[in-house]
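Entry for MU-OXO-diiron complex. Fields follow.
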Amino acid sequence: MLSKKLVDAISDQIQFEYYSAFTYKAMQTYFEAEDLSGMANWMNTQFQEEMAHAEKMFQFVCETGGKVKLMAIEAPRNEYSSILEIFEETLKHEQEVTSRINNLMDLAQQEKNHAAQIFLQWFITEQIEEEANASHIIAKLKRVKEDGRGLMMIDQELAKRVFVPIVE
Ligand code: FEO
C-alpha cells in the first residue's frame, strides 16, 4: 500500500520517464539526419528503456493498490549542434533522473515503506549504469574529437546496442 504522497511522487516520475523517452527520441532525429545510424540506434534503445521504466513504475503503483495520475508531457528540446553536446546533455539528464530517484527513495524511507524501497533499489542500480554509459561515450568522443574515422568506429559500436526487456 502506498501513501497518496508516494503515489503522487511516483506519478510525477512516470511523467519524467516519458519526458526522458521523448528527449531521447528527439536526439535520435539528429543522428538520423546526419546518417549516423549507430548513434540513432543507441538513442532509440534509450527511448525504449525509458518507456519500460515508466511502465515498471506504472505497474508497481497498480499492484500496490494506487492509481497513477498521468500528466502532460512537455515538448523535448529538438535542436542540437553537435554529437558531443547531445551526449553531454544525455549525461546531465541522467544525473537529474538519479537525483529524482534518490528523492523518491528518501520519501520511501521517511514513510518506512519497505516495498517501495525494495522497488526503488532497482532504479538506483539502473542509474549507475545510465550515467556510466553516457560518460564512456563522452570520453570516447573527446578522444577522437572531429576525426571522421574515429567517429565512424564509435557509431559502429553504438549500432550494437539492443533493447533488453526488464525481467521481473
Ligand atoms: Fe529512466 Fe534514463 O532513466
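NOTE: The mean pLDDT is 97.
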